[in-house]
């Protein structure tokens, strides 16, 4: 795994939704857009592919890998783009973006059109595991992306993705469990789920869903010689989920810091 990944992710967490890393930057930039089920992320890297600026916002504009609110997606990305451009002092002209594994390309081209509608040329269009691995830089193992709506599994051998699968269990399901157990609205459950002071309580509530994710991963990796599982996606930050997956699969499981930013930073790295 990339030895500098946690430093890069910590930089991104510090910079995104705040001020750029460098004032009056004039060099080349690499831009990535990740339209997730729960969060939309715009990541801007400098010419050395270090985090420079970015935005992320909760927005339910995608479901099962498909853009379900096309106009809303364009408006949100336009807003995020304008905010970052105002901070940097120049326009963003192109970006790379991703699509979920297992979804026909004909159905996910709307993602490219969202970029075009927001004023960005789509320079690269890659599957999410390939985007994530641009940052992870693993030669062999399994990348498990626990996103807002689904859990995606990708097997990597010799640096190439050789198998992908996607199943409908993700952050939304965790939030629904919290909402039901605490008798609160879904949006309130989302806030509770991300509150570090309540992490242990949330972990105990959603433990059965963690086990379901572990079972999904175990089923998809059993035919492969997987030495390490790498967790990415926002839901991977839940306390104890790596331990549950390790317990069920018997495979070493690693979660980088701020896993929500792995794929958007990785896809920015493949931007021209």
Question: In a few lines, what is going on in this structure?
Answer:
The protein is an alpha/beta fold and 272 residues long. Helix content is 41%, strand content 25%.
Description:
A five-stranded mixed β-sheet has the order 3-2-1-6-7, with helices on both faces. The protein is 41% helix and 25% strand. By secondary structure, it is α/β, with parallel strands linked by helices. It is built from ten helices and twelve strands. Helix 5 packs across helix 6. Strand 1 and strand 2 form a beta hairpin. The model has no long low-confidence stretch (mean pLDDT 94). The protein has two domains: 141 residues, Nucleotidyltransferase, domain 5 (2-Layer Sandwich); 121 residues, ATPase, nucleotide binding domain (Nucleotidyltransferase, domain 5, 2-Layer Sandwich).
Which oligomeric form is depicted? single chain
Task: List the secondary-structure elements in sequence, H or E.
Answer: HEEEEEHEHEHEEEHHHHEHEH
Q: What is the CATH architecture annotation of the largest domain?
A: 2-Layer Sandwich
Q: End-to-end distance, in Å? A: 23 Å
CATH class of the largest domain: Alpha Beta
Which percent band covers the strand fraction? Answer: 15-25%
CATH superfamily of the largest domain: ATPase, nucleotide binding domain
What spatial form do the alpha-carbon principal axes imply? globular
What's the number of structural domains?
2
Structural class assignment: alpha/beta
Find the CATH topology of the largest domain: Nucleotidyltransferase, domain 5
- Number of helices, counting only DSSP H or I runs of 4 residues or more: 10
Strand order of the largest sheet: 3-2-1-6-7
- Poorly predicted runs are none
Helix content: 40-55%
- What Rg do the Cα atoms give? 18 Å
The count of strands amounts to 12
Mean pLDDT level: 94
Query: Major beta sheet, specifics?
Result: 5 strands, mixed
């Amino acid at each position: 795994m990339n030895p500098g990944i946690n430093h890069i992710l910590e930089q991104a967490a510090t910079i995104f939704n705040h001020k750029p890393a460098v004032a009056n930057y004039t060099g080349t930039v690499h831009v990535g857009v990740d339209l997730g089920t729960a969060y939309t992320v715009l990541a801007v890297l400098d010419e050395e592919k270090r985090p420079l600026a970015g935005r992320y916002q909760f927005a339910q504009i995608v479901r099962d890998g498909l853009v379900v609110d096309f106009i809303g997606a364009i408006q949100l990305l336009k807003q995020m783009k304008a905010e970052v451009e105002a901070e940097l002092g120049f326009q963003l002209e192109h970006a790379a973006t991703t699509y979920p594994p297992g979804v026909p390309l004909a159905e996910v081209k709307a993602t490219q059109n969202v970029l075009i509608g927001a004023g960005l040329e789509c320079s690269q269009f890659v599957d999410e595991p390939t985007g994530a691995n641009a940052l992870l830089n693993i030669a062999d193992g399994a990348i498990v992306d626990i996103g807002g709506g689904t859990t995606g599994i990708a097997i990597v051998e010799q640096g190439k993705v050789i198998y992908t699968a996607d199943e409908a269990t993700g952050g939304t399901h965790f939030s629904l469990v919290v909402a039901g157990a605490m008798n609160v609205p879904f949006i309130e459950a989302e806030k509770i789920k991300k509150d570090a002071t309540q992490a242990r309580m949330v972990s105990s509530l959603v433990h059965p869903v963690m086990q379901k994710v572990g079972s999904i991963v175990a089923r998809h990796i059993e035919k492969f010689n997987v030495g390490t599982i790498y967790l990415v996606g926002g839901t991977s930050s839940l306390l104890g989920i790596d331990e549950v997956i390790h317990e069920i699969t018997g495979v070493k499981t690693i979660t980088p810091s701020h896993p929500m930013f792995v794929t958007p930073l990785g896809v920015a790295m493949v931007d021209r």
